[in-house]
Amino acid sequence: MPHEFSVDMTCEGCSNAVSRVLNKLGGVEFDIDLPNKKVCINSEHSVDILLETLEKTGKAVSYLGPK
């Protein structure tokens, strides 16, 4: 089930940081919507793990719910 997160991304560098941490985690498919500052993630990982991983970017992150 896809999960939607709000990530405070302002530029391409921010979205690249999100891509980097998620690719490192592995086992995820994700779509980054930079203009709306949202990341949709499809993964077997728990929401807590995904949230923790996204927080490694140093950006403000919040869980919006299942998509």
Automatic annotation (TrEMBL):
Name of the encoding gene: ATOX1
Alphabetical list of InterPro entries matching this protein: Copper_transport_ATOX1-like, Heavy-metal-associated_CS, HMA_dom, HMA_dom_sf
GO CC annotation: cytosol
Role played: Binds and deliver cytosolic copper to the copper ATPase proteins. May be important in cellular antioxidant defense.
HMA domain residues: 1-62
Family recorded in the similarity comment: Belongs to the ATX1 family.
GO molecular function, one term: metal ion binding
CDD domains linked: HMA
Annotated GO biological process: copper ion transport
This protein's name: Copper transport protein ATOX1
Subunit field text: Homodimer. Interacts with ATP7B. Interacts with ATP7A. Interacts (via dimer form) with SLC31A1 (via C-terminal domain); this interaction improves ATOX1 stability and controls intracellular Cu(I) levels.
Domain of life of the source: Eukaryota
Signal peptide segment: none
Keyword entries, A-Z: Chaperone, Copper, Copper transport, Ion transport, Metal-binding, Transport
